[in-house]
Design brief:
By secondary structure, this protein is mainly alpha-helical. 82% of the residues lie in helices and 0% in strands. The protein contains 18 helices and no strands. The chain has helices at residues 3-12, 19-48, 51-71, 85-120, 132-152, 156-176, 183-201, 213-222, 225-251, 254-292, 295-329, 334-353, 359-362, 366-389, 393-418, 423-440, 442-451, 457-475. Helix 4 packs antiparallel against helix 5.
Length: 478
């Protein structure tokens, strides 16, 4: 038994007794571990790489993530849903085939038209690294496919180990070879995804039967609502989320995109660590709850817990975001903290509603999800256009965040309603979490207004109270 296996075996014995929260806690063990590595590495990375380098990395990731929405046509989202395991395996084979074919087509397009296309849109920082894009798309698509299979089979320890291996690989490449400029940032990202895919695939056996073209074709037709609705919805959602990096690079500078990207990366750490972990466990429980009529109760329970987890840290960032970024990352990154003040409420809502977004697949509401994401994309584009029109970087980011805050709130209210809960339940959860979290910040607020010190004793006292609160919240999970 490896050291990692022994660690996860020990963790299992200290988790909450509820199967749902035990699975979440197990998955969080590896996810939070990987995020802690990122937290400790980030101050080093920001000192050996420039904002311009981070901007180029952000553009690269944006292109890979957006393109990956098309590579599998979102069939991977269907893998956890069917009762029949063989059907799920046919879906895996379909996703693998699509990933290989589409990645190869992207390689041809990038090889032939890469220089012309990126020069046309004003992004030239990646001109020597275009051929990493199809590799990134391939491994990211395979990672998502094997991840959904692991979720279906409730292999949460395997997912957690894959996440740790992915982050360690990424950071090793980025830190050891930083003298080679932006290339190690990009290569580390691709290498991490590749190793994560391998860790999810290891010890898994597929028979040649699942690659039966005729049966795969029938399965593709049976689940055609995913390419028809989930793929364009996911494409618009992810493209809209990645638009700021591309727009800021093209209309301002790679450094501006790097500031935004760092704020987004830091705030997304807890969002992706906890929100995605809960989502991955939630979908398997939601499928079962939808069949026995208890879905509304599950949604209410999960949403209430997520608001209580997310609100305290969001308020801290709203209050002293620039000071925290200055302290941790250096003076050059203070403006990223100003961005974080507006991004915190938006990403808090993303965090809280992350599990609920899987309901569009569970309840067959992909068409409505596409409409919601189409509206969001239009509003995001409009907000960025308005900011660029005024030639104001801060205004551009602020308008973009406001649009996301309002839309995410409306979307989560709709998801609550289709699950059998009322909108008032959702709003009550937010209000309760806000009032409770405000009490935790009393020492920080008093220290700031009494002595003008936002990083002093008040912050330490508030941090201790919040840590105690989180410990109690985890310990008393049902």
């Amino acid at each position: 038994m490896s050291v990692l296996d022994k660690l996860f075996s020990t963790v299992r014995n200290t988790l909450p007794q509820s199967v749902f929260f035990k699975n979440i806690s197990l998955l969080l063990g590896g996810t939070i571990g990987s995020q802690i590595l990122l937290v400790f590495a980030s101050p080093i990375l920001t000192r050996v790489y420039s904002p311009e380098a981070f901007g180029n990395l952000a553009v690269f990731i944006s292109i890979v993530v957006v393109t990956s929405m098309v590579a599998t046509m979102r069939y991977e989202l269907a893998i956890p849903l069917p009762k029949n395991t063989k059907i799920a395996h046919y879906l895996v084979a379909l996703c693998i085939g699509l990933s290989l074919v589409i990645s190869f087509l992207i390689w041809i397009l990038v090889f032939v038209y890469g220089d012309y296309f990126f020069a046309k849109i004003g992004i030239t920082g990646l001109q020597d690294y275009y051929l990493l894009i199809p590799l990134g798309v391939l491994f990211f698509s395979l990672y998502n496919t094997f991840l959904q299979l692991a979720i279906r089979q409730k292999e949460f320890a395997k997912i957690a180990k894959a996440k740790i291996a992915q982050v360690i690989t990424t950071l090793l490449v980025q830190l050891l070879f930083f003298r080679f400029g932006v290339f190690p940032l990009l290569l580390g990202h691709v290498a991490g995804i590749a190793l994560g895919s391998y860790r999810l695939l290891i010890n898994r056996v597929f028979t040649l039967e699942i690659f039966n073209f005729r049966k795969i074709k029938l399965i593709a037709v049976s689940f055609n609502r995913f390419p028809k609705f989930s793929m364009p919805a996911g494409f618009l959602r992810v493209l809209g989320a990645e638009l700021p990096v591309i727009i800021l690079t093209a209309f301002y500078s790679p450094a501006a995109a790097g500031l935004y990207a760092l704020a987004n990366r830091v705030l997304n750490m807890p969002v992706s660590a906890i929100g995605n972990a809960v989502s991955q466990v939630f979908i398997t429980s939601a499928v079962t709850s939808g069949r026995d009529g208890s879905l509304g109760k599950l949604v209410s329970q999960v949403h209430s817990k997520m608001t209580l987890i997310g609100m305290p840290l969001a308020l801290v960032l709203v209050f002293i975001g620039p000071e925290i970024f200055h302290l941790v990352f250096g003076e050059a990154w203070r403006k990223a903290g100003s961005f974080a003040q507006w991004m915190a409420p938006w990403l808090y809502l993303v965090f809280v509603s992350a599990p609920l977004t899987t309901l569009t697949a569970v309840l067959g509401k992909q068409k409505q999800g596409l409409i919601f994401n189409g509206v969001l994309f239009f509003l995001r584009l409009l907000s960025l256009y308005a900011g660029v029109k005024f030639n104001d970087l801060y205004l551009t980011v602020t308008l973009y965040c406001i649009v996301n805050i309002l839309w995410r709130l409306v979307f989560s209210l709709w998801l609550s309603c289709i699950s059998g809960n009322g909108a008032l339940n959702i709003l009550r959860d937010h209000a309760k979490a806000f009032l409770l979290s405000t009490l935790f910040l009393v020492p920080l607020i008093f220290d700031y207004y009494k002595y003008g010190n936002s990083l002093g004793l008040g912050l330490m006292l508030s941090a201790l109270v919040i840590c105690g609160y989180y410990f109690n919240l985890l310990r008393n999970s049902p």
